Amino acid sequence: MTHTRATAGEFVGSALLTTVVVGSGIAAEQLSNDVGLQLLENALVTALGLTVLILVFAPVSGAHFNPVVSLVDALLGTRSWRDVARYVPAQITGCIAGVMLANLMFGLDAVSWSTTDRATWPHLLAEVVATAGLVLVIFALVRTGRAALAAPAVGAYIGAAYFFTSSTSFANPAITIARMFSDTFAGIAPTSAPPYLAAQLVGGLIGWLAVRAFFPATRDTPGSIAVTASGG
Q1: Which of 97, 176, 186, 232 has the least C-beta neighbours within 10 A?
Q2: Are residues 175 and 182 in contact, defined by beta-carbon separation less than 8 angstroms?
Q3: What is the extent of the structural domain holding 148?
Q4: How far is Cα 61 from Cα 7, in angstroms, rounded to an integer?
Q5: In which residue ranges of the chain is pLDDT below 50?
Q6: How far apart are CA 75 and CA 205, in angstroms?
Q7: What is residue 220's predicted lDDT score, i.e. its pLDDT?
Q8: CATH of the domain at 165
Q9: 222 assigned to some structural domain
């Protein structure tokens, strides 16, 4: 029952996170023609929504909502690989469901394939940086006994990363896959998604190595991580 509840928490949390990201992007497009203002609105709503969702679902599943976070958690020995095998499909399907919900709430087709090409070398480098930074923020806090700060810290990091990375910090393979299903402000073309996924995995590996180098000891109990990731 506990495993079922945790997996369901990852599905629902991932769906709500993606609804926040994509829905706020659609709303921003409708409210303003200024791209900078649209991005600011999208970033602010994502940062706030992300913080709330981590606080809500942390006791249920750890509030990963992100395959990279789950993988790094297992590599560090604080999450079982069986959990990862359950979490990742739940995260991906949850994110897809969240995109469809966002589309429908704004009167769009449930699925509309994105035509926004994003896969340039600067954008891919930005995804490596964004994902590595996210992993470092999360596990630095967890491994130094400050996991309670993860929700506001991750929300603040993602909000900032919308602007200091050229890719607007997707930093999450599940949400990257889901964004292909919405031809809106937050969408990504299917042809751009695979390079983004590869960059995010590389970033996750770099973040894992950085965590091991700077924070070799853990003071938290296994499975106590409470974090997530998303981007613009």
Answers
A1: 97
A2: no
A3: 2-214
A4: 7
A5: 218-225, 227, 230-232
A6: 10
A7: 43
A8: 1.20.1080.10
A9: no
- What is residue 224's predicted lDDT score, i.e. its pLDDT? 44
Six token digits for residue 126: 């930005």
The type of residue at 56 is V
- Number of structural domains in the chain: 1
Helices (H) and strands (E) in the chain, counts: 8, 0
Question: Does some domain include residue 192?
Answer: yes
Give the contacts of 118 (CB within 8 A, at least 6 positions apart).
Answer: 167, 188, 189, 192, 196
Measured torsion, CA atoms of residues 79, 92, 26, 28, in degrees rounded to the nearest 10: 20
Residues in the chain: 232
Tell me which H or E stretch contains 205: helix 193-214
Q: What is the structure's pLDDT at 2? A: 87
Question: Does a structural domain hold residue 161?
Answer: yes
Query: Is residue 231 assigned to a domain?
Result: no
